[in-house]
Design brief:
Layout lengths: L2 H7 L4 E4 L2 H9 L19 H6 L4 H15 L10 E6 L5 H11 L5 E4 L7 H6 L2 H9 L4 E3 L10 H9 L2 H12 L10 E4 L2 H13 L4 E5 L8 E4 L1 H6 L3 H10 L9 E5 L13 E8 L5 E12 L2 E7 L6 H21 L3 E9 L5 E7 L4 H16 L4 E9 L6 H17 L3 E6 L9 E8 L2 H24 L2
Parallel strand pairs: 1-2, 1-4, 2-3
Antiparallel strand pairs: 5-8, 6-7, 6-8, 9-10, 9-12, 10-11, 11-14, 12-13, 14-16, 15-16
Helix pairs in contact: 2-4, 9-13, 15-16
Length: 469
Amino acid sequence: MDGWVGAWTGGRRAVHVGNVADFNEQFLLEPSSEKRFTVGRLWAGGSATERRAAGPSATERRADRLRRAHHYAGLAVGYSPEPAALVLPAEVDRAWIDWLARELDWGPVELFNGIAPGTTVAEALAARPALAERLATGPEPVLFWGRTPDRGEGPELAAVRRYEAKDAAHGLFTALAQDHPGVRVPRQEPADGPRAAARLLAARAARGRVTVLKSRHGVGGYGTVVITPEELAAAGGARALLRRLVREDVLPPGGPLLLEEYVDGGPAGTGRLRDLTFDAVIGADGRVHPVGVGEMAVDRTSYQGVTVGPGVVPPGAAATAERFGLAVGERLAEAGHRGWYDVDFVTDRERRLAPTEANLRLTGPAIAFVLRHRLDEVRGPGHLVRTLDAMPLGARLSQEALHGHLDRLRPACARFGATLLPLIVTAGREPEPTVGLALAARSVEALDAAQALLGAAHHGLGRMFEALR
């Protein structure tokens, strides 16, 4: 089989392993030195009062990261067009898998779920040798969110470690951009720690510059924040602002930071193209296979979802993103990377593309591309797919109650010509409950109408429960 599906799975059903937390932990794991990573006096120690004000401990932060990543691992349902088995860290009711199987014409799917409460998937598999053996010796390809150390060292993991770092990706973008008209790379300046970052940030604000402050690693917008001079002044200065950002878990504690030029996209409004992604697969032979270009929904720096399909991205922008993204992929392949990757862009006022990061793993947009391929395969071509990773719910719901809520909305979505697909269904009991969904239709208008319907219905849950009191 030619194309990205052949390079990804050989056209076969696959086992999907939701190791999102494992991938993140290799970059976000905090060293054991509590003194170095205590907020207060710019993470150099501080008084007992300052340490109490610093917020959760490293252990508590890790537990929170694992729980949130395990929710996001629900996207494992969409790693390939047709799963043979799903390995999920959180408990997921079988009814959700049956829903997707009906809509996407899957065959029987083995479900191994709830395997990693409070741990990584690698730790859970080490305690479940039979399941680990099933994954190692089964006939199907096994797909992971991303490459992790438990699967062994080698050039693939080395490439991931190198280019998941935002400064290394920036260096690669800079080296390639001169051969790509329509691409401009934002200027970036490193700071070896929070003190240096505070000085540079203050100097930039004094010149009236907006700054994108980044940690070297981050996922889904974590570790990246846009800072205006006005926000810095209101916070009481750069040091006070950095302390607050760590305390609020916007930035990780300690370590080097990157200060990047903010790319002004112009005024928001209808027709404004701002955040794009190019996705591709590098096959075992090192060849790069394009998957597509999508338009992401980003709230400041936090990824919310994506829309993919015919006509979503204007042809000129899509071609520019693909040419540059393929050039990036060729360099990643030379470095040893194999599998999925993407390049994310923002646009400036002249509609030039500014690459901001590379992800050497599966991504939220990857799931939309996979779902679109499957729907085109089983229902005919022309689908658009929109993923909505964290739609707020007006009330906390069990999975059973959430299933009933969404099942009641399914016919209403269908009347707009939209198919409703549940993806992230385990976060409904969080203090700020959410659900992750995909919508598929043949027009943007149908997606917009179905999304508006869902948003109103989710919000209305709060009023419904108030009325029952």
